[in-house]
Structures are given as structure tokens and as C-alpha cells.
Amino acid sequence: MVAxxxxxxxxxxxxxxxxxxxxxxxxxxxxxNGETPAMLRLYRPEPTMAFGQRDTRLPGFGQASRAxxxxxxxxxxxxxxxxxxAYHQGTLIVDHIQPDHDAIALAKxxxxxxxxxxxxxxxxxxxxxxxxxxxxxYCPGEFSVYGxxxxxxxxxxxxxxxxxxxAWLFSSVIVVENSAPIRQVLSDCYAALELVWDPxxxxxxxxxxxxxxxxxxxxxxxxxxxxxxxxxxxxx
Length: 236
Prior knowledge:
The chain is of the alpha/beta class. The chain has 6 helices and 11 strands. A hairpin with a 2-residue loop joins strand 9 (153-164) and strand 10 (167-175). The radius of gyration is 17 Å and the shape is globular. The model has no long low-confidence stretch (mean pLDDT 96).
């Protein structure tokens, strides 16, 4: 499932909402062509509202895009599936990219594997995490990672995958800090798109474990990965 060795690339500065998404696709092409080895790309994005392809065909898409801009989130459209998802610098994005001669074969299995990996990482920090879709969640997915709170569960990690001939990109968004802006922009955009959801499902890991930081989650994610592969930190 995971390459025996992964280079770890920490992107220190966001390139911008659209450019960050495009950079992932560029790296996917480089890995497929053998120009870059299998890798993890870690970064904290600028405020972004990433719409799914299906969202663009809804009558309220224009209004939703304007609503996201009013909240300070740049609207983008990702090539992977799913519904609208919001993220900002209080989130950690993990792009796992590796070559694979039959990249489609284990596409669904990857969702389960990485759901388990991120659950393990969050549990190591003390978050009561699990895998599975929770009722009313935004950008619903069978392998979402959620955290159990005293009143209800909240979505903490959303995942998406891009598969091409010879390689795959598995992208995960971990919401760690400052959930209020994400909940607000999602509420505005989902109302414009006329999609039903429960705003209580939008949260951050620090809502369940006060004081938790993106840096701590990044360290836990790398520790979880180290149980499956040899990590090599790339030079800046």
C-alpha cells in the first residue's frame, strides 16, 4: 500500500488556493514520470473553499462562490470527487504521491488504509477518533475520520484521491485549529447550493482536545507513517 521509502517535503508557505491544488497535480505528473520519488507533501493552506465537480452544476454555485469570497475563502474546483470542503491555515494538508503500475487496483482500499492511519495518529494525541461517515457531515464520505465529543461527533479529516496511469495522489485535510470560520463559510455555501447538512458536524481537533496544534498533529502523522515506511526528509 505504501512505498518502502517516502521523501517528506514540508511546503513552508502556501502558494495560494489554486496554485496549491495545481502543485499537487504537477507533483503527481513528476512522480508518474520518474522525475520525483514517492513523497509526502505537508502544508498549511490559505483559506480555501474547494468545491467538487458536482457543485459547479448546481444553480447556486455562483452565489456559493461569492459567499466564500465574502468570508475570505478563495473558491476553487478540485478534480477529485466529493462536495464542498473548506480549509485554512489551521488545517494540515497531507498529499501522499507515489508511482504504481496498476494505480486503480487498490483505489478503494487506500481510503480504508489512510482512514485508519490518520485515526491512529489522532488517537496517539488523545483524540477519541474513528472512521466512517457521520450523519449530516459536510462533504460526506465513507472513510471520513471523525472525533467523538461529549454531545456529538465532528468531522476531522476529509480525503480525496486522484489516480492516473502509473501513479496516484491521496490528499487528506486534517482540521486542527480554529473551526469557527470553517463552519461559517460552509453554512453560507451549503445554503446557497441547497445542500442539507448539520453545521454541528464541522469542527476541529482542538475543540475536543484544547491546546492541540497543527505542529503536534503533523508530528503524530509522521510517527504513524514511520510504522509503515522509511521517511526521508527532503532538503528545503
